[in-house]
Write a structure and sequence with these properties.
Helices cover about 30% and strands about 15% of the residues. It is an alpha/beta fold. It has one domain: 2-Layer Sandwich (Nucleotidyltransferase, domain 5), CATH 3.30.420. Strands 3-2-1-4-5-6 form a six-stranded mixed β-sheet. The radius of gyration is 16 Å and the shape is globular.
């Protein structure tokens, strides 16, 4: 697999945010696309412009075919390979999105990759040998770390160059934090993301939460 050329950070907001298996009511989602080149520019911490982001709200808590087309077109216009990355995505975001798409009988292109940033940040910051792309717990096969890996906690620890005060949980805020953390990790993040053992394809995602 060629190196990832576009990282698409993804976050979803639901009415119940603790269990992907029981959460079907989507409030909003955000995708933020960041080109690989920006990771080769350590001082370029500026978030990509609006053309590299989509934010969608769902008054009826459902994704329509038109919504899917917007998402799919956005993903397809990015330079490939594309990897969608979400924090705790394997347990939450990816399964919910997959379930919504299955109900519409649609899917993303077969070459679209996904990876979990909780795994990435843990493996990099704990200097751990990288585990599997899907794990029962993000720290496996190592002991549970002393530091927590909630997104905002990682952001405050890692982003020291012009950090922005930001409220966690709104999807556009969470995708921005994912960008800033990954950019601060720089080449270490690229090395992690380019490892094929860390990736899987969106078409492999199971609709009912994590599958080991």
């Amino acid at each position: 697999m060629a190196p990832v050329q576009t990282f698409v950070f993804f976050d979803i907001a639901t009415k119940r945010e603790d269990n992907a298996d029981n959460c079907d009511e989507i409030k909003a989602l955000c995708f933020l696309a960041v080109p690989r080149q920006q990771y080769l520019e350590p001082n370029n911490i500026r978030a990509p412009n609006d053309g590299n982001q989509i934010y969608m709200e769902f008054p009826n808590n459902e994704i329509t075919v038109e919504d899917f087309n917007t998402i799919n077109n956005f993903i397809n216009q990015q330079e490939k390979p594309v990897c969608i990355m979400a924090h705790n995505g394997n347990r939450f975001d990816f399964g919910i999105l997959k379930r919504k798409f299955n109900r519409l009988n649609v899917d993303l292109a077969s070459d679209v990759l996904v990876a979990d940033t909780m795994y990435a940040f843990h493996d990099i910051l704990e200097n751990r040998a990288q585990g599997n792309a899907v794990r029962r717990f993000y720290w496996e096969p190592h002991p549970q770390p002393a530091n927590g890996y909630k997104l905002h906690d990682v952001y405050t620890r890692v982003v020291t160059n012009n950090p922005v005060e930001i409220e966690p949980h709104p999807p556009q805020n969470d995708t921005y934090m994912l960008f800033r953390i990954s950019h601060a990790l720089g080449q270490r993040f690229l090395n992690w993301a380019d490892n094929p053992n860390r990736q899987r394809r969106f078409v492999q995602v199971q609709p009912n939460g994590i599958q080991i």
